[in-house]
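Holo model, NDP. Inputs:
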Amino acid sequence: MQTVTILGASGSIGCNTLDVIARHPDRYRVFAITGCRRVERLMQQAKACAARYVVIADETLYEDAKHFAKQYGVEAEILMGEDALSFVASDSAVDIVMAAIVGAAGLLPTLAAVKSGKRVLLANKEALVMSGELFIQAANQYGATLLPIDSEHNAIFQSLPQTFQYGDLQGSGISKILLTGSGGPFLTRAIDSFNTITPDEACAHPNWDMGRKISVDSATMMNKGLEFIEAHWLFGVAASDIQVVLHPQSTIHSMVQYVDGSVIAQLGNPDMRTPIAHGLAYPERIVSGVSALDFSQLAAFTFAQACPERYPNLALAISACESGQAATTQLNAANEVAVDAFLSGAIRFTDIASVNAESLQQLEPTSVSSIQQVLDIDTAARAAAQQHVQRLTA
Ligand code: NDP
Ligand code: MG
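Output:
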C-alpha cells in the first residue's frame, strides 16, 4: 500500500490523479489533497477519497472550507497556507507526491517533497523551469525519484533505454529527442487575426482538456517552450539535442531517435491518466481508465515544423534555455503575469509575446546558486512584467 499526497488536487491533473487512484484502492491510500480557491470541490474530493488532510492555500477561504467540510461530512483535518503545503508534501507517512499545482506557487512544496526523498510525480513544469539545476541536484542529493507526468516527457522517458544515464545521449546511441506538440487551437488561424483571440478561444484545445493557464500556453506554444526547458533539465540534454515536431493529432506523445535510424515513440489517446498511472505504478503497469488506441479509427498522422511567426513564444523559450537559469526563471515569471493579464481581459493574445520578449531583453546575466536567488529573480521579473502590462493597458 502506497500513501499519496496530491498537490493541486482540485485542478485538471489532480482530478485525473484521484480518478486513477480510485481504481486501485488495494494499492493507494490518499494522505492529503490540496487546492487554492475551489474549496467546495476539494471537500467533495476529500469525502470521496477519505483524505487525512486537506490544505487550502488561500487562507481567506478557510471559513468557506469549514462550511463545505460540514456540508459534505468531511472528517479530514483542514490546514491552511504554504507551510501546510510543504508539510503534507514531506511528512514521513507519504510515499508518493503528485506535484500538480500550476505555476511558480508549486515550487516550494514540490521542493519539500524532493528534499524528503519522495517519489515525485512532476506535472508542475514551471517549478523545474524556474529552479532547473538546483531542483535536479536536490533530487540527487536527497534520493528523490522524479517521474515525468507531462505527457511528452513521460513519452520520452518510456522511449529511452532503461540503461540511460543522465545527460549521456551518446552512451545510449541517441541522436535526438523529438518533442511533439499539436500546435494548439490556432494552427491554421490567420495570423493577422491573432490580436482578436479571446480567452475562451485560447482555452479550447483541440485534443487535451486542461487548466486555463496551460491551455493559453499551448495556444501560444509557450507550453512547448517550457517543455523544451523541462526536457533539458529532466534528461540533462543540450538545447541542440532537442527538436520540436508539430503533430496535430497528439497521438504520438514524443519520440527518441537513435543513431542507427530507429525512432522509438510512445503513442496513446490524449488522456493524462496514462502518464499518471505510469508514474504511480512504475515500473509496473496498472489500468488507468484510458481506452485503447483503435488503429482502425485513426485518421492520418501528420507532421510539420512550428512556424516562428505563428509561435514567437517558442523561440523565446529556446533562447532562454540556451542563456541559462536566470533567463528561464525570468521568462517563466513574465509569462505567468502575461497569461493572467490576458485571461482577465487586460491585454491581447499577441501582447503575451511582447511582455515575454521585453522581459528577456531586460535580463541581467547572473549565475543562480540558491533557491532564494530564484525567488528574487522571479519577484523582480513579475514586477517588471506588471509594469509592461500596465503600459500596454494605459
Ligand atoms: P489547473 O489550473 O486545472 O489546477 C491547478 C491546481 O493548482 C489547482 O488545484 C489549484 O487550486 C492549484 N493552485 C492554483 N494556484 C495556487 C496557489 N497560488 N497555491 C497553491 N495552489 C494553487 O491546472 P492543471 O491541472 O491543468 O495543471 C497543473 C500543472 O500540471 C501545471 O503546471 C501544468 O503545466 C501541468 N500539466 C498539466 C497538464 C494537463 O493536462 N492539465 C498536462 C501537462 C502538464 P484551485 O483550483 O482550488 O484554485
Ligand atoms: Mg505536455
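The pocket of NDP (ligand 1) is lined by residues 8-14, 35-38, 57, 100-102, 105, 123-126, 150, 208, 210-211, 213-214, 272 (CB under 6 Å). The first helix runs from residue 12 to 22.
Archived with the compound record.
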